[in-house]
Amino acid sequence: MLSHEQIWGAIDRLAERYALTPSGLARRAGLDATSFNKSKRLSQDGRLRWPSTESIAKVLDATGASLEQFLGFLRSGEMSAQGISPAGSSIPLIGFAQAGAGGFFDDGGFPAGQGWDMVEFPAATGHEAGVYALEIQGESMLPLYRDGDILIVEPGAQIRRNDRVVVKTRDGEVMAKVLLRQSARSIELMSLNPEHPNRSFDLADVEWIARIIWASQ
Q1: N or C: fewer beta carbons within 10 Å in the chain?
Q2: What is this structure's pTM?
Q3: For the domain with range 4-81, which CATH number is right: 1.10.260, 1.10.760, 1.10.10, 3.30.70?
Q4: Nearest 5°: phi and psi at 205?
Q5: CB neighbour list of residue 164: distance below 8 Å, 6 or more residues apart
Q6: Span 73-89, pLDDT tens digits
């Protein structure tokens, strides 16, 4: 008999397979963004809440995954329960809206403090210490990145012209751009969305800049 933990675990692994958070998976399926949140898996009186067959059908349709694949995620959960871990690594995850707040990064742009979620990615993707994930929120980065997409960011990596980067200013603004030019005193950034202007900053106004090494698209 399938357990409550196995069913929800399969949904989590389906989200991870398509580089989404549970909330990103729910949004892609046309469901309320909080439908798969961990807080929704138990009622206030402690009773178990189960995902509906309709919601499972919707996420399979939205991702293109088959029922057989979903059953495979159930089986992989059984393997984990037996101490057999699928290949991959967990890295910190935070949304763009939260990333501008203080306390989530150190001075070098590495993840720090509390408040981070975790997301599974292939070991080959998250191989460097300090690699983390940012979840796109909103439509400001269309057409390249959509709401719910995940960016893998590597602080400290060498950055070259035309690299896609994440920049945080000392004013707390966090943005994903393309590096056009960097001098000893300033940087010029190209916006991913043509409806948004390009940006220029004095380096003294930039807290950190990190290269995007992978994105779910």
Answers
A1: N
A2: 0.59
A3: 1.10.260
A4: -95, 0
A5: 176, 177, 178, 179, 192, 211, 212, 215
A6: 776 554 444 443 444 56
